[in-house]
Amino acid sequence: MKRRTLAGGLAIAAAALMTVLLPSTPAHAAISHKSPFDCGKTFYANNWTPGHSPSGAIDWQSYGTDAINGETVRATAAGTAYFKNAGSTSYGLWVEIIHSDGTSTRYAHLSSMVQSAGTSKSVGQGTKIGNVGSTGNSSAPHLHYEQRTSGGAVDTSPTVEGVTVSLGQKKAISSTNGCGSSNPYTAEEVCGSGYDVVDSAALGTVGKVFLTYNSSNGYNCVVTLKYVSVGTPSAVSAFLEPEGSTRTTDSGSFGYYAGPVKRSAPGVCVKWGGSVGSTSYTSGFEHCG
Description:
Blueprint: H1 6-21, E1 42-46, E2 58-61, E3 72-74, E4 79-85, E5 93-98, E6 104-113, E7 120-123, E8 128-132, E9 143-148, E10 159-160, E11 163-164, E12 170-174, H2 187-191, E13 196-203, E14 207-214, E15 219-226, E16 234-242, E17 248-254, E18 257-264, E19 270-276, E20 279-282
Antiparallel strand pairs: 1-2, 1-12, 2-9, 3-8, 4-5, 4-7, 5-6, 6-8, 6-9, 10-11, 13-14, 14-15, 15-18, 16-17, 16-19, 19-20
């Protein structure tokens, strides 16, 4: 029978203890990409070969009654969006989103972007980043879309909405981006460039009212976002009332939000609020200045 030395026994025990105490490095969960379009929209995803640069990029084009020109473009997954202008010989107006695992997506030939080139912002899955167009080296309106690895290589068989589009394939893919309980819009997006949220009020679990302000022009803006029946028209409203003036209201049967309700109110207190269904909120006169 072999005898273990004291030193050897201590080394084995220490190794065993380290195995117990040191956690394994957590792996990133795989990024799941939605379609870059509004809920329910269907477009062709074309993975052209040969001759498409870079190989593996997707050209999204019209399908049936869904015409792609001017269509809203949304983030396929959350991350940090960088807004760029590559000029007439390349991507034109384009956005790159860096995701939490270091992978990225690119959206090119846009007709417009929600922010100017050279800026960046955090986006959620479904956040609007621009509109389909034909800027740059493009012969017709379409969305050029890439999925890239953390090392920068183009994934030649990208997967969107659980559908893999390999080289040479063309598939019609329907979007679930923003479907269900999540609202793909933000108050800043609805009010427009220069508006920042200064206050908000939850409408239980059915929605939320946001008050924003644009310091460059002195305007307030109110938006009510729905969190139920998103995409299906139902009763929703938003209002804004500068002190000493009349109230402006946007009310109706809307799929995503009511508003934007904008009023000039520099140095003036405002009353604001809104409703989703029977749940409503009304502030006092506040945010004076």
